[in-house]
Amino acid sequence: MLSASATPTQRSYVPQQQLPQQPGSTRPSLDGLQPPAGGGRNLSASAVSFASRGPSLNPSPMPGSFSSDLRSQLNISRAGSRLDMFPLEKLDEDDGPTNEKTLAYLREALTREMKIKEGSENMLEALNTKKAKQTKDQRQRVEAELNSSNQRIKELRQRITDAQRVRAAPVTPTRARTEALFPGPNGLRSPPSASRSGAGSEVDEPTESPTFALAEILQALEVAGMTPDYYVSRANSLVDLFKRHPTLKYDLVWSVFGLRMQAMLLSESREVVASGYRMLRYVISDINSLRNIRALNTDYLVTWSLIKDRKADVEREQALKFVRAFLDVKDGVREISRAVVRSIAAAAEEPEERLRPVCLETLAEILVRDPQLLIASGGMSPLHEALADGSYKASESLTAAFLYLLDAPDRRRFLRPGNELEILFTAFTDELSSNERFLKQSAKAVSSALKTWSGLMTLALYNFRAIRSMITSMVVQAGPIRETILDLVFSLLRIKPPAWATSFLAGRRLTTYGRVTNLKGTTAKPSQAEFEDDAGEQNFVEHYTALLLAVFIKSGLVPALLKLTQDNEDATLRRKSTLLIGEVLKLSSRLLPPSWSSELQLLPELFASAAKFRDDCHFGASGVIYQISSVSKTLYRSSPSVYIPSAHNNLEIGSLEDHPKPNTAMSFDEGTFRQLLLESNVLSSSNYTKWNWDVIHRLIEGPLTSGKRLEEAIKASKFIKRIMSFYRPFKYKFSEIKSLRNTQKYVRTGCALMNALLQSPEGVKYLSDNKLLRQVAECLAQCDPTSGLTAQDPMFSKDRLADTLCGGYFPMLGILSGDVKGMQMLDRWRIFNMMYRIVDLKQRPDLIKLMLSNFDYHLQGHPRVLLSKALTAGTKDIRIYATNALRKYATHPRMGPQGPEPGDSKWAIQLLVTQLYDPEVEVCATAVKILEKACNTKNHLEYIVECRPALDHLGEIGAPLLLRFLSTSIGYHYLDGLDYISNEMDDWFLGRNDSYVSVIEASLARSFLDHQDDHTNRMSVFDDEQEMEADSHEGCRLLSDKGHFADFAATIRDHGMQSDDTELLTKVKGCLWAVGNVGSMELGAPFLESCDVVEQIIRIAQHHPVLSLRGTAFFVLGLISRSIHGLEILAENGWDSNTNLLGHSLGLCIPTDLSQLFSLQPWPHLPVTDISLPSSQKTEHTRLPAMPSRPRSQSLIKALQEAEAAGEEGGGVLLAPRVELDPDPEAQRESDDSESESESEEEEEEEEEEEEEDDESSGDEERTERQRSISDPADVKRRGFIRRAFGR
Known about the structure:
With 1288 residues, this protein is mainly alpha-helical.
């Protein structure tokens, strides 16, 4: 339908009056059309008639169908319904009623055009259902009419906008505004045509003039009396303009722009006010722009917006964002008024406030940037409440603000000692007001505080009062508080519960988890990972964990846990506390010095209770001892109990798994073997779900590794036949099983089967003749585009590899690739040939990664060639993945009968050196990290130097590897020949030590995050130039000749206790790290003996006022304790460290007396009354007069009104609410003192006057109201205040 009033068919029958058409014109000009006669045509929407769009529209047989005889001419325009009937140019010039009529005509015409447009669109939709060839001409005509309608609608909208502007009569002309805003030749531009200008324009200009667009928008905003949508749309256009032209805000003339913004902020519409705040937020550029904005009295406006109710949330939200924009400008917090901060604090105190989280974050940011402003504005109270009740979800961010202030003494004075952070423990001590969700939020905040030096030092005040209260709450409180505190201790001590912990807490016996098979499958990999990254490097996270463990032990953690295990009725909680005791004992034996852990392991209180045989507590204590013993034994079996770092022992503990172990299962007799075959249920059923896979796995790893037993199982039974049939791909048994955690046993058994078959000639022959490898090769051929084999659903498709156990065939192929006979079988079925072609497939990275990660590369052959091809010809992700596949071969040499084989890693090192020249930086960085780890072994380091890698093109990425070369003589001479050492030393001395501080502190902060895996959590010391040089005799000589160590020691001695200069603090930290790295080497002992720098570092760690610098000194002392000489010096000063069985220090050094390190004393607190704010943070600068408490005389009311009017005229303030008192307390006290003296004198004069008046009017019974008021002494005092306020 073309219109709501007439269909196209109906219009053809309506008698029309055809207007004359100018020849040769496709569209009549506006001037050539005349309006109709007075009674000629009704213009109402219901009675309007339309001119024909051509000679005729033939009637359709039925509604909705179209005839093929549509013959409208494209060059004939529409008449009767068009705006062309009216001389719009003339109508625009009329005023008053004529202008109103014009607007009515325009709106009516716009309505008709919208109906015509809707009808054309409906006709197009109907034509789309017909055949394209039959309706081609019709579609072209209708599209032409639709385009014409769109053009006319755009023109009508523009003319309506122009007519509205004429009616509004704007004050500022366009040209004058443009010239005033942007003087100069660039601001002069002729206005665009009416069809392209204005807010209603749908077509942008090819080249936009931001100055002219800004002038037009401001002029549109000047129009009064429009709807809120009108102003909001223009405000959004202005914001878009500022986004497109960010530099436009620097050229604003605030005398013009500010008036428009102020008018919007004073609007009664909430949406308009919100748009005003949004526009102001986008014009903020620097501190001067903030001052210009505040000159618009935005302090009053923002305060008024923030105190509104929830209906004005859109306005309040934009006002809050506007305030937060001040914080993004340098020193912008200096322009935030105290009245605004008070309003934000008031909103943050409401528990049900929707904007409360944003208000709290804003207050926290203000606390960090300007604590005086927040404290003087009363903003501490909502922050305390949010931390105390635990209702705020991001409590860690609020805690971080307090921790920042507590770090330095100049910021610490604004907070009260022992109060700000101890409020975090409220949820643990108040059982009635705590729920589980709030407890978890508080636990996160406490955890974040205890993982920082400022938090730990502050919470250690008053003999660890806060930590002791938390541990006591764990024993005293009930319900979820105990579990939350236990989980918090697990998290803080970085204890990862073992795999059997869940079942143990559920009540199962520990003996169930003591089996070697279970422990090997669940804990072998974690124990290897525990020592994989430890290679002789200082682990600062474990050093801090050792200190935290000592703090908990000092605060009575172990006795509290013992009491919890004996007195608690909850069995699950008892088991959890028992498990924590075992973990604490294990951790203390590994991390703490013997002076700390030896007595702790004895548990004297528990054994004393167990020894009281006549007491009832004997039975409970004995049961706890048994449980702790069982947990400790299980923990000992599930992970190594002796901590031996590989810095002093090249034998990796994880590599001990590679040793062949004697298999006692091979000694099974004939009867036992047959009994196991029957128990497996393989002989009695062909359904694999009924088989006993534990027995099958035991058989395959045991008796079937013998050729005799294997031959018996092959020939005398169907055991091997059915097992091999289960693994054949096209039997669709193993290959159709879903990939789940409990189905991985089938993959493990399949790998054990391949390994067992390779152990004997009978097994090799059987595997060669079996169809398993042939079918696997066929599955690979389905993925090889050159093989000619295709399948609708390939066995190794992406979905099947992700959802089923089809990917389990690759670990089996990996077992075969580690044996010569297995390689021959793979080569027989051309499996390697297909893999070479699969590596070239860019669209199958999942398949390539499976192959690369499962192959065994110890043997020279096709797997290494395949890996080399992936390293050089694969995509970026594949090259990175292949580079990481070399990690274990470069860092962990294969164990042979005589020990590690050093030559086994040379091929991997060669490939890694080649990766250093990869065009992608990420690949090079991965290779550098692996080679750096390989340098922990001396043989590997020497071989890497022999490869002479060129790392100049990598810059900072390759620097750590080059620094590793300095620890050997061959590497030192290699770098000395490149003139690298001298330049690098000067670079470190002149400034790189400072950047080193930032890098290592950022890495330490990341390492303490909770949501990290084990590898990212392990933070090790970065390679330092001085450390590497001190690891070789040549480097020590060069370090001594340069004299850098003496300069570092002098800096620490002269400026170590300084706390004011931030740059000097950073320099001291850099010197501390340099000294620590040198002192950690055995060859660095002469440098430590040459000066008393160790004693200075101990002094900094124990007494420095900056708490973060104490932490740096603590870590540096741990580095120094790694050397024998450094440990001796520390032992003389009351510090001790744990050692391994060989007597080598672990570098986890803590003081024997914790009070030496936690020596922070309560500091003097700065009260609120002593805080003086600058004038830029005040809204009101004049003192307010004392207002009377009851009605006064007319003269007094008149005086108040005159004073208020005078203040408004002098200050130019639009709003007059008093939101502040005089904020200067010193001036307040001085004025009060001076006023009290003058008040006493005036009171005496007033009393004398009153006595005279009383004598004169003693005979008069009635007194005037003025006399009664004067006779009141209190009123006399208030009158003196008012008189002085108004100068009367």
